[in-house]
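We emphasize that the prediction below concerns an isolated chain of 123 residues; any contacts that depend on oligomerization or on bound cofactors are therefore not represented. The input was used exactly as deposited, without trimming of termini.
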Amino acid sequence: MAPCAPAAAPAARHCADDCGGQCARAGHDLSSLQQFLIGATTVPPALVAASEAAGIRCCRCYGSTEMPTVSQCLPEDPLQKRLNTDGRPNPGVEVRLVDDAGTDVPAGAEGEIAERGTENFLG
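Result of the prediction step, given as a token string:
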């Protein structure tokens, strides 16, 4: 069985650094790789664009230690969205931006991300 849609953090994507060139030179076959989900830190838009240029769909995601998958782009989202956002909240996830008192902040204001969903760790 060959992988076709793995997930990875940029620090663990050494085979995707030049969209498969390093792996091909090392004799690894990435021909089955159709798309991958990437997150865990800042994802450079250039990585998403290079992946797309190589024919591999790249979808960004966001999560935290307390809730691993808060949001993600989908493979059918436009490239511009996949380049510059971590998508929309996953089904069943509620997201708010709040101030230090836990009050919602206005759109465009800075705040802390408060999320709730089935993957949220308790404690």
